[in-house]
């Protein structure tokens, strides 16, 4: 099951913000997830929608609650 477009956008914003907080690159996240940088790039650009399993794995790796990734938007 994939996230809706709105939730996917929120996911992308939240992950990017958390990576910045951690000082991580997309490659760092990919390494921690055991996936390619290309896959992470597709997730964060909106070319690929994260499923629930992916959302949970990302949340675990970046040490946040899964709900946080889809529940609030970072102000522009």
Report on the structure:
- The chain is mostly helical.
- The chain has 5 helices and no strands.
- It has helices at residues 5-22, 26-33, 37-45, 52-61, 66-71.
- α2 (26-33) crosses α3.
- The longest helix is centred in the first third of the chain and has 18 residues, at 5-22.
- It starts with a helix and ends in a 5-residue tail after the last helix.
- 17% of the residues are buried.
Number of beta strands: 0
- The number of helices is 5
Mean pLDDT: 90
Described by strand count, sense and barrel closure, the largest sheet is: none
Strand content: under 5%
- Unreliable stretches covering 5 or more consecutive residues: none
Question: Topology, pairings included?
Answer:
Blueprint: H1 5-22, H2 26-33, H3 37-45, H4 52-61, H5 66-71
Helix pairs in contact: 2-3
Briefly summarize what is shown:
By secondary structure, this protein is mostly helical.
Jot down its keywords.
mainly alpha
């Amino acid at each position: 099951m994939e996230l809706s477009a709105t939730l996917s956008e929120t996911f992308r914003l939240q992950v990017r913000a958390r990576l910045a907080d951690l000082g991580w690159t997309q490659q760092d996240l990919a390494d921690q997830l055991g996936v390619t940088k290309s896959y992470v790039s597709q997730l964060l650009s909106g070319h690929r929608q994260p499923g629930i399993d992916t959302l949970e794995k990302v949340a675990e790796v970046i040490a946040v609650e899964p709900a946080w990734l889809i529940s609030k938007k970072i102000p522009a």
